[in-house]
Amino acid sequence: MKKTHHCYNMESGNQENIIFPWKNSVESPDILPFFTTRQGGVSQGNWAGFNLGDHVGDDPAHVARNRESLLAALAPHATELALVNQVHGSDVVIAGWDGPRPNADAVITDRPGVVAAVLTADCTPVLFADPKRRIVAAAHAGWRGAVGGILENTLELLLKNGGSMEQMQVLIGPCIGPLHYEVSTDFREHVIIATQDKIGMDCQKFFSMEKNSAKLEFDLPGYVLARLIKTGIDARQIINLEQCTYALESFFFSHRRAVHRHQDPCGRQLSGILVVPPR
Q1: How many Å is the Cα radius of gyration of the chain?
Q2: Residue-wise burial string across 207-246, b where 16 or more C-beta atoms lie within 10 A, e elsewhere
Q3: Which among 35, 210, 235, 272 has most CB atoms closer than 10 A?
Q4: H/E element holding 193?
Q5: Is the CA virtual torsion 125, 130, 136, 139 positive or negative?
Q6: CATH value at residue 77
Q7: Cα(146)–Cα(270) distance, integer angstroms
């Protein structure tokens, strides 16, 4: 799949705060993936802008208004957001539960209008779609989840519910880039050993010292891409938006940037994908 993305205004004015990477494209007219930015919205302070996270200390009324604006922007295609309590794990659930949100880090749905969604502020959002089967998923892949197998588990459940490797299309959304993700040598050794033990993949190449000879940097989106390819998905079926949440301050919330500036907690952007209801 060709790497293309465009921004479209959600509300009146000049701010662009939602990215539709397949807008008016030939990939699939029946599947709608998107990534929000921090621009627009009503949140204030550390959460200023279009914060969609209700677990980070923001005024609940502001979060509710922002979410209402999002659903309005997706109308008439979207009817509800299927969000889970993300715990940096590897559990996957199918949308449609009753009662409280389950603890999980990926959501699958084939219900038209239901947005499979995850919240991030540096972790990698990964969206999956089988347009022929009309089934989609959103996964939250921070380093713990990615190492623990969230991507493989999401794909496995998609396949069990009728999806196919040949039809699968994947989007890697905005996340922290390697130049801003400094880690320790202990972190590197843990990730290398755990990855080798779990899937037999050598991931040393995702650690470098490009920015500062005294600090290691971790290429999280590169690691996520490699694990996706390791599952058997063809690289041509994957789009990486290559947008760094830390570097693009005016567009994205970044937990690590907020910590560095003593401004934590911060807001969250939302990544979602839905099956478009029949016309």
Answers
A1: 18
A2: beeeeeeeebbbbbbbbbbbbbeebebeeebbbbbebbbb
A3: 272
A4: helix 185-199
A5: negative
A6: 3.60.140.10
A7: 18
- Residue 225, domain member (yes or no): no
Q: Residue 30 belongs to what domain range?
A: 7-176+233-275
pLDDT, the chain, mean: 91
Q: Residue 64 falls within a domain, yes or no?
A: yes
* CA separation, residue 61 to residues 34, 51, 53, 82 (Å): 23, 11, 12, 19
State the angle between helix axes of 220-230 and 150-160 in degrees (0 to 180), rounded to the nearest 10.
40
Residue 105, SS3 per DSSP: coil
Convert the pLDDT of each residue in 216-259 to its tens digit.
999 999 999 999 999 999 999 999 999 999 999 999 999 999 99
Q: What's the CA gap between 176 and 123, in Å, rounded?
A: 7
The CA distance from 23 to 32, in Å, is 8
0.85 exceeded by pTM: yes
**Inside any domain, residue 204:** no
Q: Whole-angstrom Cα distance, residue 221 to residue 273?
A: 19
